[in-house]
Write a structure and sequence with these properties.
Strand content of chain A: under 5%
Shape of chain A: elongated
Order of helices and strands of chain A: HHHHHHHHH
Largest sheet of chain A: none
Oligomer: homodimer
Chain lengths: 193, 193
DNA sequence: CTGGTAACAGAACAAACGTTATATAACACG
DNA sequence: CGTGTTATATAACGTTTGTTCTGTTACCAG
């Protein structure tokens, strides 16, 4: 057996390169040659790890969504703290989270014409919703957790989208302010009933 | 002077065709030939109205954003009713508004690598924010209108994004429910102070 | 030390792309 | 009724794209 290489790590490097290009200039910028060059390789390596461009893009979306999931997986603190941490992890607060948010958004229109991509995005969204709903249920028994989770996610996603369009107007502090206001508002509405 | 044709109308037809393709399968699907064919014409006509592809895409984004602005321009009723109508107009409730929402989102990553596109999107967002803030100020003097407007827009955009990713889970009724809940929540928070 | 296979680089190719150039048809105007 | 200009179709060109193919290097098993 020849040259030993961690295959999964190489694939990750290549999908990361694709994600960087997509976040920087759109899906159109992620050509085979550009992706390979961004990863410091050539098309020969790229085709060795992915059957075709379609598979590369599919894996890029999946990997990028997984990065976002990893980010919002909080462990310490009580349920309320873990809920807030999960929502904080969903905000584009730094370069990396902004990049993966941009990839998520960039694939939105693409997924409209590709069932597999659409399925991947829907699954990620529903996983997020379930995750948040569970935490909401743990820290505030009043009200429908699913509905409250959707409201919180909407608030976070709305802030995130505005931050992607206009980053200068949305520094981390402002994003966190908006999140905390949404949390306060919803917990107040839940307890008063 | 020869064959009389409404130039602005033709340009609108062509950018509409581009918008349909982009919403259907992403920006990559909007090739010169495809856009022309979608409009029932050929590339000869397309290059007659737009200098190059860059200008076509720029105009497509501008026209699509203008359609969304037109949609949320409400006249009848009191300030509160006009505020709600403007926010309703910003939701992807039917095929047309979903299409223009998809175009807005599709250009997000593209704009990251194109200053002109980014400027166009930022301007549209700030115009929307100003518009909503004015209506908020008219119907509820308590609280900072700008801040309240941002919260409402975040709620609407969040719902819109979720509806684009997972339309079946977000029929118009559910979107309107979420909007009305956000309106109630914010007006309650504003009056209690 | 020596095959043999995995990990790449690089060239090659057909298709599709944006763009430019050329040709034709339709109409207002003198 | 020509005539000149505009609107559009069609063809052609050079580039870029995704993909395939061929070669080369580096490593491990025997």
């Amino acid at each position: 057996m020849p040259r030993v290489v961690d295959v999964e790590e190489r694939r990750q490097e290549l999908t990361d390169a694709a994600a960087r290009l997509i976040a920087r200039a759109g899906i159109g910028a992620a050509t085979m040659r550009e992706v390979a060059a961004e990863a410091g390789l050539t098309t020969g390596a790229l085709t060795h790890y992915f059957a075709d461009k379609r598979e590369l893009l599919q894996c890029t979306l999946t990997a990028s969504l997984q990065r976002r999931i990893d980010r919002r997986h909080a462990t310490g603190g009580d349920a309320r703290a873990r809920l807030r941490a999960s929502l904080v992890g969903a905000l584009p607060l730094d370069e990396e989270s902004s990049r993966h948010w941009m990839v998520t958004v960039a694939f939105c229109a693409e997924a409209a014409g590709d069932q597999a991509l659409a399925q991947t995005q829907r699954d990620a969204y529903r996983e997020f919703r379930t995750h948040i709903a569970r935490l909401v249920g743990e820290c505030s028994p009043a009200g429908d957790p699913g509905r409250l989770a959707e409201r919180l996610i909407a608030a976070v996603d709305g802030v995130a989208l505005q931050a992607l369009f206009d980053p200068e107007s949305w520094p981390p502090v402002r994003q966190l302010d908006a999140l905390d206001e949404a949390l306060d508002l919803l917990s107040a509405a839940a307890t008063q009933r």
